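Intended use. Records like the one below are meant for learning the mapping from a protein sequence to its folded structure. Do not use them to infer anything beyond what is encoded.
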Amino acid sequence: MHKSKLGGFIIDCQTRDLGAAAEFWGGALGMPVRELPPGEGETYKRLVDSSHGLDIEVQIVSHPSRVHLDIETDDIEAEVRRLEKLGAKRIQAVQTWWVMEAPTGQRFCVVRADSPSFAELATTWE
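Structure written out for the chain above:
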């Protein structure tokens, strides 16, 4: 048995100016921009979602700009296998998470549970 839920959205930006991209998206969504620690802060900026508790980040990427979602889970391998049964495929392991692709072509990530509301809001799977 394991649990999973929508963790948040990552706004992938093919840009050289992460700060400007984060300021745009923060302004568009009405969310303040927060710096992340060194090692992460060069690639990501966090948008503070105090209304829904989602992890929303702006990220510099080399591929075309797009938005992808993260599914958070307490068992990454079990969640990846569950999603594969639904038709998703593994694309790439990155650090502690998996980049997946839906049967319809959208990319998404399966990441470790980190949100404060995870235990309360996650769906339990057998």
